[in-house]
């Protein structure tokens, strides 16, 4: 029978506690940066999905397409935070009769025929110029930039309770002749109907 | 047992069972249709509900808005039959559920397959969620079937009530209608019972209608008329038979071999010295009443009659309790069933004691007469022998050979007569004599009397046993005597050798031929037989006439004299 007062026996938990703390620190150091990066990547993957899904909940005027089977173009202006996920997502996909296509631009002038335009945060400084350039064009503008909707953008990604939510400027969409599905509006966190028109 | 129910109950049961069957089938058809309709309606409703919820959840799924989806699902509160719902995204993750706090929603997807199915009292429904042909996820609904069961229970209750009411109505109607059918049958049955109990075959059943039951009543009444007529005739015949049997002092009996039951009437009892109704009633009881000497014979006769299926004939003695012996004769006739087995033997018994006593007396008188006759024949033979001896004595004193010859002829005639008497009293039958035996005795006497050399003249007899009455045998004996003596004397002159042949035969028509033939010299041609006046020939002719015989002569080769006569019937 082992005696509980045996010094050798009593020493063991103390040694194990120290070792456990050391291991925990090592794991935290090793996994911390990687987890943060993964979370960012995952967010953009989800946002890429959202971009793809917008195509299903928005009706563009017929004039927005050159032909019945002309592509529905999703553009990224500025740096591309999606990596390859957007290309992956839209490969061989068709919305109605329109195949999906992804393009990347540095200049807003080149994005005039896009149907969905994601404006990266890197373009925040030029946002007003960009939006004014696209005024009255049937281009669904999407961005993560704060107060994007208030500044005349149509849909803004915002994060709330670790979940991606949407803020929609319905007036901007209307003026661009885009019909947003009521379901999309219902799913949005915030619908800005009196947004400042750029 | 249903078959033992009364007609009333059967008719009532038939009507009730028919009504129940019709109503039951109608109710089953009605409930089945309603349940089927309700089931299809439920599927349609749940399907529509699922389509609406799915359509409203597309954006929530597309933009990962669980809260929005949850709100959409909450709309299901308005549908009480939906007990649970769950929404899954394309990655098979639970996205939203209703009600939100119920843990089994996560399992709902596993329970339901594609489309719908009923399980454990629930309808499980699966609805894919599409937006612009792109699948966003899957919605599962679980609907409670309590409402359907409630409706089912309600229908069952209604059906039970209607059935109960209808059965009560059917019972009332069957009570009213069955009387028309059962009353005539019951009346007929009651009449039949009355007839059976009272044996009054003149009773007639009441006729209620002209239908089949009416025809049955008519047939019954007609049958009763016939039975009544037959019964009356039978009673008359029985009375006549009883009178006849009483007058003839005959007892009747009936025996059933299978059950060994022997029934006697009163007269039969009286014949055995018993009081009416005291006989034991079996074959053994009867045998015990027979005197011990006759028991074995009577028992065997009964057994033989049964085995050979013959009529029974018994003659036996019984000893009455008063010690007197009675002679009874019983005759029985066997009655067989369809398989040829004896079912009953019936018969009559007569007391023949008086006849038997008379018969015995007659037998005794006859025996006495036979003894007397035998004695007479014996004495006649003795007397004839005395005559023969007297002639012998007288012959010794006579020298004339012609007279001696005549005396010897007479002696032979006397001997032949004595021989017939001797043969008669030595035989059992005193009325007839065996003539072949007479011939066998007579021929040696004649041969010895005339000193015939048997080597020179042989005598042969061809006569099988033939019985002749005394009145014929006596003349025949004398005729044969005369003919043989005549042949010995005249047929073989000068030591001529030859044969004398005697025949006596009867043919199929009881016609007897008695002939004596010899191969001697024959009757001379010049001798006219009819005109010859010899004593012998006259005697033969007279004796032939006496017995009505036809006489035939043949002169030579061989010489033959024959008598042909018929025996009296």
Walk me through what this model shows:
The complex is a heterodimer of chains A (about 200) and B (about 575). Chain A is of the alpha/beta class. Helices cover about 40% and strands about 20% of the residues of chain A. Chain A contains 5 helices and 10 strands, in the order αββαβββαβββαβαβ. Chain A starts with 6 loop residues before the first helix and ends in a 6-residue tail after the last strand. Residues about 1-35 and about 195-198 of chain A have low confidence and may be disordered. Chain B is α+β, with helices and mostly antiparallel strands. Chain B is built from 13 helices and 17 strands. In chain B, helix 12 (about 470-490) runs antiparallel to helix 13. Chain B starts with 6 loop residues before the first helix and ends with a strand. Classes of the chains: A alpha/beta (about 200), B alpha+beta (about 575). Chains A and B meet through helix 1, strand 8 and helix 5 of A and helix 1 of B.
Uncertain residue ranges of chain B: none
Number of strands of chain B: 17
Order of helices and strands of chain B: HHEEHEEEHHEEHHHEEEHHEHEEHEEHEE
How much helical structure, as a percent, in the residues of chain A?
25-40%
Mean pLDDT of chain A: 78
Low-confidence stretches of chain A: 1-35, 194-198
Order of helices and strands of chain A: HEEHEEEHEEEHEHE
Distance between the termini of chain B: 79 Å
- The strand line-up of the biggest sheet of chain B is 2-1-5-4-3
How many helices of chain B does DSSP assign? Answer: 13
Largest sheet of chain B: 5 strands, antiparallel
What composes the largest sheet of chain A?
Answer: 8 strands, mixed
Cα shape of chain B = rod-shaped
Helix content of chain B: 40-55%
The amount of beta strand of chain A, in percent, is: 15-25%
The radius of gyration over CA of chain B amounts to: 62 Å
> N- to C-terminal separation of chain A?
84 Å
